[in-house]
Amino acid sequence: MQHTVKAPIRFEGVGLHSGAPVTLTIQPASAEHGIWFRRIDLDGTDTMVPARWDAVKQSPLCTRLVNAAGVEVSTVEHVMAALIGCGVHNALIDVTGPEVPILDGSAVPFVRAILARGLRNQRVPVRAIEILEVVEVRRGDAWARLSPADTLRMDFHIEFSDAAIGRQDKSMTLSNGAFVRELSDSRTFCRQSDVDAMRAQGLALGGTLDNAVVVDGDMVLSPGGLRHRDEAVRHKMLDAMGDLALAGAPILGHYEGHRAGHAVTNDLLRALFAQPQAFRMVTCDGAQTARLPGVGVTHREIPAPV
Ligand SMILES: [Zn+2]
């Protein structure tokens, strides 16, 4: 069944790139509403921004949504991953600025608050996107692929020259709370050289060693080190979860990402929806619903604070 949050949930923080204070409130929404953002700091324009693949304006560092009036909300991927990973299908997300708060750089602050507040069963079946044919996109040496599977499976591979990250592979079936247990607390990461370059362009102004894992060669500069030995690939899977959530419905299929970032995953959704024979919408029966990422997730699965 479709679910929404039981009551509004409020978060305060700063935007990763702007550094500006921002408040985000996840509001309950009716069945079939889907996920929408609303810019409550603006007037006299269309402030509703759909959390959908076709509203993505590609940018290299984060996932940015822009509506027809040019109103934008960026860095939506972590809150989107938390919503789908907790089984929230309908919500209206009010934000007081153009960027979602970065919080600790992972999805776990969103997950913890959503599960603490609880979900409301809306007694309308969930519709999902069943993948019927292989769809693949490439950009240079990065690629991503969707192929048929009866639940969301994910395989991811990354390669960085910095020894602190290096090559990492991970495979996972994202049902039974696996997202919350295994991925939700993995943080954004970047290289010190990227931080210097972004700062020179006036970006990453809200970035600190508390909301991103910063590496330099074989060193992890963030105090406390890593939350997982392979935190980087886990975070890339978290990002892919959030970006795939922009499909508008849970995906029943196998996602493979090879050095894929936000733009490649968005290319993949665009390629999927351009090929009507490659998928079909299904109303989930009990067995399919039981395999969706957020079903049966409880508070006990949240990783302990580090
Ligand atoms: Zn991320």
TrEMBL record:
Gene3D superfamilies associated with the record: lpxc deacetylase, domain 1, lpxc deacetylase, domain 2
GO biological process, one term: lipid A biosynthetic process
An MF annotation (GO) of this entry: metal ion binding
Binding residue positions for Zn(2+): 78, 235, 239
Key words, A-Z: Acyltransferase, Hydrolase, Lipid A biosynthesis, Lipid biosynthesis, Lipid metabolism, Metal-binding, Transferase, Zinc
Reaction catalysed by this enzyme: a UDP-3-O-[(3R)-3-hydroxyacyl]-N-acetyl-alpha-D-glucosamine + H2O = a UDP-3-O-[(3R)-3-hydroxyacyl]-alpha-D-glucosamine + acetate
UniProt family annotation: Belongs to the LpxC family.
Task of the protein: Catalyzes the hydrolysis of UDP-3-O-myristoyl-N-acetylglucosamine to form UDP-3-O-myristoylglucosamine and acetate, the committed step in lipid A biosynthesis.
Organism annotation: Pseudaestuariivita atlantica
Record's GO cellular component terms: membrane
InterPro entries xrefs: Ribosomal_Su5_D2-typ_SF (IPR020568), UDP-acyl_GlcNac_deAcase (IPR004463), UDP-acyl_GlcNac_deAcase_C (IPR011334), UDP-acyl_N-AcGlcN_deAcase_N (IPR015870)
Protein name: UDP-3-O-acyl-N-acetylglucosamine deacetylase
Enzyme class: hydrolase
Name of encoding gene: lpxC
One matching Pfam family: LpxC
Residues at the catalytic site: 262
Known EC number: 3.5.1.108
Pathway involvement of the protein, from the record: Glycolipid biosynthesis; lipid IV(A) biosynthesis; lipid IV(A) from (3R)-3-hydroxytetradecanoyl-[acyl-carrier-protein] and UDP-N-acetyl-alpha-D-glucosamine: step 2/6
Keyword check for Metal-binding: yes
Record carries keyword Oxidoreductase: no
Cofactor: Zn(2+)
